[in-house]
Fold this protein.
Amino acid sequence: MTRTLTAHPAPALAGDSAPKGYRGSTHRACPPEDTLARITPHLARAGITRLADITGLDRIGIPVTLAIRPNARTVVGSTGKGATLVAAQVSGAMEAIEMHHAEYAAFDGFEASLEELQHQDRPLLDVRRIPMVRHQRLLPEALLQWTAGEDVAASSPLLVPFSCVHLRPPGKGFALARSPFQRSSNGLASGNTRLEAILAGMYEVIERDAFSLARARPGFWSRAASVVDLSALHLPEVAPLLAACAAADVMVMVLDMTSDLGVPAFAARLFDLAQPETGTAVGYGCHLDTEVALVRAITEAVQSRVVVQVAGSRDDTTKYERWTMGLFASELEGARRLQAQARHVPEV
């Protein structure tokens, strides 16, 4: 039997637009300085006790920050990246705020089986396309928790499994219903406006979809046709990042992994020429503006290098990830050959 609670669908996207007030290494409704000023009074409420500048732990000098939430229910340290320190501070703080909201999400929906909702002809997310927990099955008669969502393309409401849109663990006053669906922070995003936050979340899932598709093909990191000719790029936001890496004796290799959606997406790898045993760091970026996508990929690779390899401050890094970082160091010579042969220049 369906047990109903009050559900409050989000307002439609129509009219929820705002001009871009800032264009540079990223596109936002306002400059990073304004965003930082707005969110700083709310950091404590999100459990953030420190917003640390950890750029100096590495020799590259591209800004990296770490937002600390000691009582986090998931990841204690949220990392930030950016072409400037303020942008990196905003990045780290906003990621921590996102996680805080996901960890404390209130269930405002109802419980029903998939079978019941289908009989009622309710608008539903196609749950067959949601990744499942290993060895789990979706039983049509099993009770699931549902909450209100929105079909962005159609600007219409639809129901989504609550377990897919929060990271809250079971505890006092909250019983987590069994769900066969995987939970993750994929697509979790924030912004200066609601539309900006939605767009950021969409970029993230498009980026990860593009990477999954590219990686499914053999030889992803050795595909010469995808290697970007960085010497042919004349992009004012990208050039300082490449110069900083070169000055630190760190080689940058960028692969174009844009999918059939056509939204520019790139993967960047850093090879430490001075200390090859360090391994490599990888970063990804996606944006409708090619330059912004490249900036995101390179700054994320630097962020990964500082946070995982230098500081060791991510508490969710797996043994496999650490092993592959060391393994990639043996691919340096192959990367050098690919870089020398690079002819691909993405459209800007």
